[in-house]
Design goal:
elongated; 106 residues; 10 strands; five-stranded antiparallel beta sheet
């Protein structure tokens, strides 16, 4: 597992923007040494990811991409690969990617 935090952060007021990368298999980015809380977090996969079907009320199916799934857990970003049945799981992402977090500075 190899989470890398970019050395140049951006500051505005008491907020900090942190960016970095994660490796395939990394499912947590701990930012507790930099941030007191996280207001926003996002992640992008480095390659093409599989789509999952989304079924509407008229039973039409459309292929939609929902990955990686990102959740905020205190000062940790949880990155999940998502499950084939369209639920959020704690499966580690199968591809590396980049992340961004905006939060209150420590």
């Amino acid at each position: 597992m190899a989470v890398t935090i970019d050395p140049r952060t951006s500051v505005f007021g008491d907020r900090l923007i942190v960016t970095g990368t994660y490796a395939a298999g990394d499912n947590a980015v701990d930012l507790s040494s930099i941030l007191a809380s996280i207001d926003f977090a996002g992640a992008n996969s480095s390659g093409i990811i599989a789509s999952r079907p989304l079924v509407d009320s008229a039973t039409h199916t459309t292929a939609v991409v929902f990955a990686p799934d990102v959740r905020i857990d205190g000062t940790t970003i949880r990155i999940a690969g998502g499950l084939a049945d369209s639920t959020i799981g704690d499966t580690a992402p199968t591809q590396a990617g980049t992340f961004i977090a905006i939060g209150r500075r420590s």
